[in-house]
Amino acid sequence: MLVGREGSRRILTAVSKPAEQAGLRVGMPLTKAHALVPEIVTMPADPAADAAALERLSLWALQHYAPIVAPDPPDGLVIDTTGADHLHGGEERMLTGLVNRLAASGIFARAAVADSWGAAHAAARFLADPVRVIAPGTVGETVAPLPILGLRIPPETVTGLRVLGFATIGDVLAVPRAPLVLRFGPLLGRRLDQIQGTISEPVDPLRDPDVVTARKVFGEPIGAPETIARYTKGLVHDLCQALEKRGLGARRLDLLFHRVDSSLQAIRVGTARAVRDEDRLTRLLSDRIETIDPGFGIEIMDLTAKLAEPLVLQQAVSSLIEEEQADIAGLVDVIANRIGAARLYRIAPVESDVPERSFRRISPLSPDVGTTWQNRWPRPARLLARPEPIEVMALLPDHPPASFTWRGKRRLVKRADGPERIFGEWWKRDAELAAVRDYFQVEDAAGERFWLFRSGDEQQVTAGLGRWFLHGIFA
Amino acid sequence: MSASAAHAVVADLRDRIRQFDGRAARDRAVLPFGVPDIDDRLPGGGLALASLHEVCGGGNDAVEGAAAMLFAAGIAARTKGQVLWILTRPDLFAPALAQAGLAPGRVIYVEAGDEKSLLLCFEEGLRHGGLGAVVAEVARLSLTASRRLQLAAEAGGTLGIALRRFKHRSEESAFGQPSSAVTRWRVAVRPSVALPVPGIGRAQWLLQLVRCRAGEAADFDVEAPDAEGRIAFSSRLADRSSEAGAWRLGASA
To answer: Which top-rank group of organisms is this from (chain B) (predicted)?
Structure first.
């Protein structure tokens, strides 16, 4: 529990979960809290350290999530996800990932994506679900039932509005604007417009003083894609020279466009390895210029290498007889920036007999593990996401099926091979201690081949009982 | 004597046509199947390397594409370098690719969400030039798109395989629509030969060369690829010319 000062009073500024259950609230005077729960433990609040921690968190989000990030004091971060969410598999997955990563380091967080900063601010703080994506155009109905605390207005205004009987944002939006503004000042009106997105609210992005940047300020605003591409090339050239001086290569590049209407547009690209190749970086950035809306024109272009790593020069071919390996890092980067890095992978074998556990995804540029699957039995080309139950006629106890029905079609089995017995991995889950699958490869009258199994515990399967499933399709 | 002279004249004419096309000599490099009966049917004695090929499963396999996938894997396994495999549905089982000769260390998978990004990745991969082969599981392939892909394959010198995989069996007719692919193959499964002991032998396919630029359509009875990705001619040899058996689905010997 944290205690801060407000004037001469000492009030609670943060309370823990058990304390909240005991009836303590943020904003309660310390004396009252002591009266309610005498044994509470308090710590003095340190707003300066909180702000510094928030800034560190912002820098982390800046490096990992999006090019435009700013602290939203006292307890939030604002991230402009435009042009960055696809790299994390969409908005929903990006938010879930962010919240989970914060939770892993002991920070309880809620996140929301909305059309406007104001709406996301209110939704993240006052909606129950930890992750919320508000679809475009539905901001009004989503924020209407939220309390007026979510409006980012001074506490006096909140108190004043409460006295007048306003409880939710929807209440305030429903009444005529002019009397409210007369009474509470222009800030309230501006916040209401900002939450609805009718006036823009630029995010002043946090800048890391250590990163390498290149900046171009235009006398006349520019807007044509060709012009943007030309200046992008120039900026990349400048940046690469700056990187070369420090012996670095870029891992993540942000290109920020300051528009004349003081809003920001951004492009973020990432690379799998540190790169200082001008052509490759220009190519990656130019690919995404089409996502930029120049509006009335762009005044400033800012290129920063948000993540940079030492770049060691390597000898390309070490001997004459060694086979030349084509470098595909460039291709991997181009594709990863188009569709997201998680969609690009290599599959490596895992030592497991259970088919669905026998592989794992690794990064496309990771070194070749050099192993392959040690199966002497043939494996199907297609593996169903989950085994589908089938109706089977089979001789007991251990014969392959004579016929089976899958997806409403009955097939006569002409030839079969099996069983191949696979035991459950008891060290993974207790339920698998007795689990057994007997796999059969069967061929129907038309020549199509399927991978079936009978599942159950060992006694059942050996006795010919157990349920049948279809797991894969051979060629 | 006269036949070989005629052959020389035809070869000379083909060379001159290629020069008009402006295609470099490396574009004519081919990847032989290692099966003389198939290689003889293909111009240049094998699959043209720097070009686009289409493969489709026959019958029920039009939806699952399992046999077609192994056929493509067998071809890709015999190229040199990394292979880019572009998927739309993540139901590919990698150990099967390894059993068809394509080691896991050689394949980079791309899960393209929609048709647009799939074609984009396909073209990017072909144009890059550093890959051995690019395989993409694609449902729709318009003439324009295939033309673009073919040009990209020529520019990058990479073998491209469009693995046509349809949502439903009825869509298979789309395979007959024009495209710029150099060859088109249909792979249909056939009942395998009974072994003298209980069990299943090597899978048997009816491999149809449906269309071939500067070549004739033909049907082949083949066996599924072995661990080196090589298909073999079926032991119960039944080579039929295009007049006899082409377009007949699931024909059995």
So the answer is: Bacteria
Which CATH number is associated with domain A212-310?
3.30.1490.100
d(CA A370, CA A348): 9
Closest CA relative to residue A365, chosen from A344, A380, A349: A344
User: Closest Cα to residue A401, out of A454, A355, A446?
Assistant: A454
**Length of chain A counted residue by residue:** 475
Point out the residue among A335, A368, A373 whose CB comes nearest to the CB of B105: A368
Which parts of chain B register pLDDT below 70?
Answer: 1-3, 21-28, 235-253
Kindly list the domain boundaries of chain A, sorted by start residue: 2-45, 56-196, 212-310, 382-473
Q: Tell me which fold the domain B23-185 belongs to.
A: Rossmann fold (3.40.50)
How many CA atoms lie less than 13 Å away from B231 in the CB half-sphere? 31
**The model's pTM:** 0.76
- Residue with the two structure tokens 């699931």: B250
- Which residues 354-373 on chain A approach chain B with CB closer than 8 angstroms? 355, 358-359, 364, 368-373
In sequence order, the β-bridge partners of residue A212 are A305
Check residues A132 and B150 and name the one with the higher pLDDT.
B150
Structure-block tokens of residue A225: 């894609």
The domain limits of chain B are 23-185
β-bridge partners, A215: A302
User: For residue A329, what pLDDT band results from cuts at 50, 70 and 90?
Assistant: confident
On whether any CB of chain B is under 8 Å from the CB of A286, the answer is no
Rg of chain B in Å (alpha carbons)? 18
ipTM over the 0.90 cut-off: no
- Cβ–Cβ gap A347/B112 under 8 Å: no
3-state secondary structure of B122: helix
Mutate to test the interface with B, among A328, A406, A410, A450 (most CBs of B within 10 A): A328
Top-level class of domain A2-45:
alpha beta
CA angle A119, A151, A25 (to 5 degrees): 115
Least CA distance to A414: which residue of chain B?
B191
Those residues whose C-beta lies under 8 Å from the C-beta of residue A227, and which sit 6 or more positions away, are: none
**Whole-angstrom distance between the N-terminal and C-terminal Cα of chain A?**
65
Nearest-angstrom CA–CA distance, B82 and A326: 8
Short-list A20, A19, A2, CA closest to A11: A2
